[in-house]
Write a structure and sequence with these properties.
Structural class: alpha+beta
Shape: globular
Distance between the termini: 60 Å
Radius of gyration: 19 Å
Helix content: 40-55%
Number of strands: 7
Strand content: 15-25%
Number of helices: 7
Length: 231
């Protein structure tokens, strides 16, 4: 009876942890596409019929992104699975698609790679979305760069030309609940680290080439010849 009681307590604890994580991810990751959808809908109302169509396309894309986040996070809450099927994912294309889901008016995305890696595309999308949103949230009208030059290792980076992260806080930024912005939730980079760990990769925060923040993800498995074209 004591052993069954212990096992049951462990099961309840794991279930509670998954539900807490579900709430954290949903509350954080739905904010960006929801903000984009709301803003584009307002623009569509004020635009002429020809221009309204483009805004509504963005609304549709944001709503589809929200649906995928909900479905994937429900799977995580129910089954504890952080990543799904690993398939070839184009780093540049995925980062560009995720850029559309971040409210980054005034910011710019520069993609400097055609690399293809093995990953869960939806989870990798969450990673890019959170890193890009983090750059915009802390830096405003920044330039965000995505590339694969990570010191000879196999991987990719996301960096910006904003204020950067003080060296003493570069490990602390991945802690759940930590935020360097008044409007931050402190979940974005914690979710990024969880996704990285689930893939078996590594991540570190360092200084960008223009003085901003740079996040390097290494230990990534290439997929196809497109990676070689960048090397």
């Amino acid at each position: 009876d004591a052993e069954r009681s212990r096992i049951r307590r462990e099961e309840l604890r794991r279930e509670r942890d998954r539900l807490d994580e579900f709430a954290d991810i949903v509350s954080h990751d739905l904010r960006s596409p929801l903000s984009v959808a709301t803003g584009r809908l307002e623009l569509a109302r004020d635009a002429d019929p020809d221009a309204a169509g483009a805004h509504l396309d963005n609304v549709e894309s944001a709503l589809e992104r929200m649906e995928r986040i909900l479905e994937d996070t429900l799977t995580l809450a129910r089954e504890g699975k952080t990543v799904g099927e690993m398939t070839p994912a184009d780093v540049g294309e995925l980062a560009t698609e995720c850029w559309r889901h971040v409210d980054g008016t005034g910011a710019e995305l520069v993609v400097e790679t055609t690399a293809v890696v093995r990953a869960d595309p939806d989870r990798l999308g969450q990673l890019f979305e959170n890193l890009i949103a983090n750059a915009v949230e802390h830096g405003g009208d920044v330039t965000v760069r995505v590339g694969v030059d990570v010191g000879g290792a196999t991987g990719f980076y996301v960096e910006d030309d904003g204020d950067g992260i003080p060296e003493a806080k570069r490990e602390q930024v991945f802690e759940k609940g930590y935020s360097g912005a008044d409007t931050g939730t402190g979940f974005g980079l914690a979710i990024v680290e969880r996704i990285v760990d689930a893939h078996g990769w590594s991540i570190r925060a360092t200084a960008g080439s223009d003085g901003g923040a740079r996040f390097e993800i290494t230990g990534v498995e290439p997929a196809g010849a497109a990676v070689a074209a960048d090397e």
